[in-house]
Write a structure and sequence with these properties.
Elements lengths: L1 H26 L34 E6 L2 E4 L3 E5 L3 E6 L3 H11 E8 L3 E9 L2 E13 L2 E8 L11 H7 L16
Antiparallel strand pairs: 1-2, 3-4, 4-8, 5-6, 6-7, 7-8
Amino acid sequence: MRRGAAARGTAARAAAALAACAACAALGCRGDAGAPAPAPAPSGAPTPRPPVDQALPGELAEGVEQAFGLPIPRRMKVRARFPDAVFAVGEIPAERVANYVRTRVLASNVETGPAKTIFSRATVKSAPQRMIRIEVVSRAHVSELVVRDETRPPPERGLSVEERWRRNGLTPNGKVLDPTRLE
């Protein structure tokens, strides 16, 4: 009888060891294939921004002067200001000035060439009520920024079609009212 009891004790210990191994495997001894993937970073998380008083490397800082809502870069000086155009010049590569403008405006067309970049029918993101044209021109060791206001005046209310034609110097057929005025 002793033999039977000893055999049962050995069998019980083997069953207990097998159960312990199974429990260990179930609780966390899994391979990488069964491990859950780490959660992706949320896409809506804000990207880290530099402090307000610092620009990123290669980025131009905004100056205090503006041209129709577009801040002129700090390292550029306004050379001429007219009712419909502003001219600024600075010793900055034209590519950096064009990138500066690109981040601040929405343009329907951008033409890029070796010496000039033109932003046609553009609006400043912070002042969308004006339609402007911006030219960034490379000249020797300086860059020139030309901002032109192309905003159309609002139409006059209460005018008939004939009156509108007449104010523009034309007949309703499209003929010139006073040919000497065109000379």
